Amino acid sequence: MPVLTGKELRIVGFLCNWCSYGGADTAGIGRFNQPTDLRIIKVPCSGRIDPLFVVKALMNGADGVLVSGCHPRDCHYAEGNFYARRRLEIMHNFLPIIGYEPERFEYTWVSASEGQRWQQVVTSFTEQIHKLGPAPKILGPEASDTLSLMQAAL
Amino acid sequence: MKVGVFVCHCGSNIEATVDTAAVAAAAREFPGVVFATDTMYTCSEPGQDEIVNAIKEHNLGGIVVASCTPRMHEQTFRRTVERAGLNKYLFEMANIREHVSWIGKDREANTNKSVDLVRMATEKLLRNRPLYSKKFDINKRVLVIGGGVAGIQAALDCADGGLEVVMVEKTSTIGGKMAKLDKTFPTVDCSSCILGPRMVDVAQHPNITLYAYSEIEEINGYVGNFEIKVKKKATYVNWDSCTGCGICMEKCPSKKATDYFNEGIGKTTAINIPFPQAIPKKAKIDPDFCTKLTKGKCGVCAKVCPSGCIDYEMQDEFVTEKVGAIVTATGYDLFDWSVYGEYGAGRYPDVITGLQYERMLSASGPTGGHIKRPSDGKEPKNIVFIQCVGSRDKSVGRPYCTGFCCMYTAKQAILTKDHLPDSQSYVFYMDIRAVGKLYDEFTRRAMEEYDTKYIRGRVSMIYPKGEKLLVRGADTLMGSQVEVDADLVVLAVGAEASAGASELAEKLRISYDSYGFYMEGHPKLKPVETNTAGVYLAGACQGPKDIPSSVAQGSAAAAKVLGLFSKDQLESDPQVSIVDIKRCIGCGKCIQTCPFGAIKEMEFRGMVKADVIETICQGCGICTSTCPQGAIQLQHSTDNQILSEVNALCQF
Amino acid sequence: MGNPRSESNKGDQVKFQEELKDNIRKALPELDVVIGWCGSFDPLHATPHFMRREEDIDKLEISPLSVHNLATYLPGLRGKKVGIVVKGCDSRSVVELLQENLINREDITIFGFPCTGVVDQSKIKKALGGHTGNIEFCDMSESVIVIKSEDKAYTLPMAEMLADKCSSCRYPDAVISDYFAGEKIGNKGEEDADYAAVETFENLSVPERFGYWLKEFDRCIRCYACRNACPLCVCRDHCAAESRDPHWLSQENNVRDKLMFQVIHAYHLAGRCTECGECQRACPVDIPVLMFKQKMNKEIRDTFQYEAGVDPEATPPLLSFKMKEENITEKVW
Q: pTM here?
């Protein structure tokens, strides 16, 4: 479904199965209200997240991407989030060169018990994305399709 | 694949804020979906039957259920589709309860979001493949790391259950912390009388192989088939012939060696047997203090040894043991209390730890069971106990409660009165934590029958005043300052993970918390399992525990091992990585980053390729995100499956 | 021969070339092939040269036209005994290939020489008014290139014709070699790489940056010359760009996939790219594709103090980790 115009932006979340997905569940069980923009993709481990998934989501039209894993040292697979931290940090800092604000992508750690922290992360990230507004979108096969619209917007 | 979609009302849990019928209607338009409906309780028996019937009626190849979190009912529905003849991995869940209906009341937004989540699940499902578990043989031997009371219990239970047990103990005797205790609470019975026979059982059990004074060097393999490299540290005494007669100890001229067993109360000889009941009762030389080893002069022990077992040239030795499961029982160590400047930071000889006091109380200890001030050997009259030293104190990075200090302090106060009837004990405490059978009654006895003065408050300062120590603290119940002229101060020092615990965790590939305690699989439901299959926890390595809890967990770990070994073969989780041989270029990046050593090199037509050992792979997928050419794919979380989810959500 | 360049180009260049040829002559009997450069279809171009017999060695020519990074050939020749002539920058690619076990050190013989820089053919083409057909003559000295094309003579300042990577080169000498001909210029690896161009670009506004790449990649014809020239693009027939499993990119002609491919390339090179610039050199439509890799390297340097292609024993930063990362400040929520 398309995003609800004027109400929502498209935010994709990649959450590890063991900590953060559970944290999001805990937030739900606690009925901690959250903005509705985020859609969560479950992965086994933050180490499974190829930073290119983040870029793929942005290029396909996401306005924001949020990654969350187990806190460092708590990884179910011992080391996954340590690798993730390095790789995601590099991608986070790389994004500006393409023309995305680095704030469109954040990564963090939320444990399965931290429902409240999850609520806070989702709320503040959604606010951050709404403050940035929609991300630049590629609107057609030719650059001109996008560029003319961008010009019009400028 | 023909897909069926079931959108659950969960009573009103979902239906109240999600238009489930609209979600089902939207799902009918998705590519691949041939059947979609909303149901009241999908997990109920009629709900599950509806799924089974739909699979048969519409010849469905895969099912999406939009309901609660997969952590709740994924297993349930996997069994359902299996019942209908489908492979259980041809199933996906969309979490529209915890992640949608329970976190917001906007019905339009929730319905819209639910449709997205169902679309995502459907797209993933279309790329799911049937997966099958494999069976593999197991080695029914168990390794127990640590010979304290928890490890002893686990080892004896396993051995009595018919398993071969290998026990590895870091020090030269088993017994652990419990062997150092004089008495135990709340029964005040003799610690070594309880433990001693169990230690002897370990030594004599035909199924137990004991490596004392040994450490784990390397752990390879996986559940059912671990390979352990054990380092037998050089003792300089041939244990095959040592009879433990102790003549070497009597004659050794180097009498200033650190007495680790006695917690530094007193000294021992360079060649020593830690205590009379030691198991194994064998001598070892402390190379730091032996003048033959440090300066090349002496050799007395070699001359007096009746069985000629002294070997100054002895080197560390390595042995390999194959086991199928591991019980970790590495226990705890005391917090380094010298960070507390207010208690003298270790400068005052008459401020000692509870464990040192325990050795002093012990009849077989360095003082022969007489309580003496370390400074002048005099009997103390006023004895102050301070609780929570390195427990419940954020300022030193130890916010947790060690849990057993309240009880051992009460016991020590009682024993003090027994030893020195004229003495007076004071206990500075924060709260008394006496949860356990007969525990609270016990602390009451310390106060009421043994006249121990309990003062609720912290000590702010200890400083010497003549021969005595002036202990100044607050009594928060009276709202007044308290000063006690103490002859001896005993600190109830909290527990922390034993030295080297984190290094061992890395070898075992298990997680540990920021204090070094090992993480259990689930705080409620998997208290002795770890997240590494085949590795179990017993005792204080998982968190501070008293003796009954440690013993209980030792038995629990043994039960888990016996359960694991009740089958001849184990089934592997098929959600593992596989290598596409033709895409793999043999660069080895996956091998380098796999936390489990589950990937090895193999030769294929003269080329190097990666190969996943299915039974070791834990399914984290680090390899998949590391491999640039996508040659190694984690099944059920492949690049294409995740990309399809991304594409379902972000359609330009 | 008939190449006017080789006759007029004397001095040091010739001296070390003879030494280099002697080195190769000594080693060739033990090797299956030695890869260098020789003259090409016109005096302004060189081409990779595969020396199998002694007489092949005579044709070897080292000059500012020796642009190709010959390390690209090494993984394909795995199992053979291969000699390779390397510029400083090329040698760093060899180091990377060794680090990743894609070639065996004992099979490779490395011939180094002091490199004073290579030309950027795009710059020459521009100076020649956009076409480089029918070059009749080319002569190079340290300061100028003299070219005759269609009866017109051009004298171009060498400094302005050098590739960008050469003007800020910190590794003129091979970082690893078995033979080294000539006198070393001296590597300055301890100095920081120059990322001024990247920083300038980053100062543009978000729509300017995004729009810039859309415009640039609109020209891309998805020929993948950038990838094929890259010495570290080792996936070869199994590149993510043309695969359905994993299916990262469609085969459609759209700017999204073109841009995405460059990000994939840059990320796959993170902590590996030595900025040899072959991707950009190979691009037939002159898209500045090196900038993504430079940006990636800048981040790798700033975060992990790591530079690729220096130490064959090093572990690339994205294949390792520290429990505490000194230079990563995580977001506080």
A: 0.76
